[in-house]
Design brief:
Blueprint lengths: L10 H16 L4 H16 L19
Length: about 60
């Protein structure tokens, strides 16, 4: 997957990035910079693109005491 490819993101992540980008543009940011900030924010909040089920963690056992 080449850099900048957004196909690994969910629809919700794409909507979130678009909303953030619009917000930054409304505040006067350059459109390219607004897009970069929006995707960086989505990556920070969600940990990147769509995750596969591979490597999922087992549930943590509860402590009784």
């Amino acid at each position: 997957m080449p850099r900048g490819d957004k196909s690994a993101y969910t629809a919700a992540q794409k909507r979130k990035a678009a909303h953030i980008e619009e917000s930054y543009e409304a505040r006067g940011r350059d459109p390219d910079e607004a897009e970069r900030i929006a995707w960086a924010t989505v990556n920070k909040q969600d940990g990147g693109g769509l995750k596969t089920s591979k490597g999922s963690k087992a549930p943590v056992p509860r402590r009784h005491g």
